[in-house]
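G.,

No rush on this.
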Amino acid sequence: MNRNILATTMVGTLVLLSSCASKKQLQNCIFENKELTGTVMSTKEQLATAQARVASLEEQLAQQRELNTQQKEYIDQQKKDYALLQNSLDKSLNNASQNNVSIEKLVDQINASNQYIRHLVDVKTKSDSLNLVLQNNLTRSLSKEELKEVDVQVLKGVVYISLADNMLYRSGSYEINDRAQETLSKIAKIITDYKDYDVLIEGNTDDVPISRENIRNNWDLSCLRASSVVQELQTRYGVDPKRLTAGGRGEYNPIADNSTAVGKQRNRRTQIIITPKLDEFMDLIEQAPEDAEK
């Protein structure tokens, strides 16, 4: 009888120990699964961030290649202009004896023209370099989250900063929201640092009609939004208002198809367009030697 009781007790003990061990293993598995799930999610986020960064770098590389192509075309044109001037000099030298043209004067004119061309090339190169530096400084100052809603590009010597409407404004409104302040402050600092540039704020909408109090249509909305950004840059961040221009293009400057929700979202944007002051280039044109203009 005692043997039976002892055997029964031992079997019960083994079952209990086995049950405890299984529960502990199960808990360990659950814990490890949670850790692995967290690691997978973190890895996915890191991968997404890396892919976004790679896409941004590829886009910047493409822009740099386009800029290099434009510079090459510009320099090639200057070489052609120089060849034409040289040809003009050769003809003048051939006819010098007949027309009593002063060789020294012709040489001075050619030298003046060449100096003017070199100056134009230097100014263009300097402007392109400053634009790239401006773009890089702004891109580096923006956080990864901001870069998802802010697009910075350099196209044909002009810096374009495109901001999504849901980042800038309250829904269906032209009032600046609090979330936009940090981004606008960074853009304002760049604008303030580059004093030789003019700034155009351009509002754009999708093609969905709007009619609210004091907003008759998308023309009104795009202009009011641009004006809000201009006044924010002036009053809150101290940007010189003489450098600022506000304009709206309504729904008539789309960059995507308005037939989809994604396309509409891309079209609802405000662009900050930074350009060199045109009066400086007009001064250069006025300083051109007379023979260089002919």
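When you get to it, here's the other one too:
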Amino acid sequence: MSNRHLARSIAMQALFEWDFRGQPPEFLEQTIARDLEEFGPGLDEQKFAEKITEEVQKHIGEIDALITKYAPQWPIEQITVIDRNVLRIGIYELKFGEGVPPKVAINEAIELAKSFGGPSSGKFVNGVLGAIYNDMEKPKE
């Protein structure tokens, strides 16, 4: 497992716990710090995991609006906590992140969904993120 993939996995677990418990924003900082210590001691990409959680939290309104727009048949509160937070990471990386190619962001999110979600999580995440990607402005070649 690559360092960045592990960092995304730890970020997803912290976001899951924060979302599941309905905790205030400052709880997420403590959660990612604890999860990095427990699941990623010596991980080179700790700052990457912290940035994901900080930025997802910072942009959560915009991210959740995109989930609502691209998965209209699934109200956000009805999407499983795992799938919801995997989508949040994927959308953050697609729309707000820097340095991660869109197809890598989508693939990483699909892998997280397959690892932590249910049998159809990968397809669901792929469908939502693929639709967002298709509507994104592409650089002119």
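The two ends are 33 Å apart (CA to CA). The mean pLDDT is 93.

Enjoy the weekend,
O.
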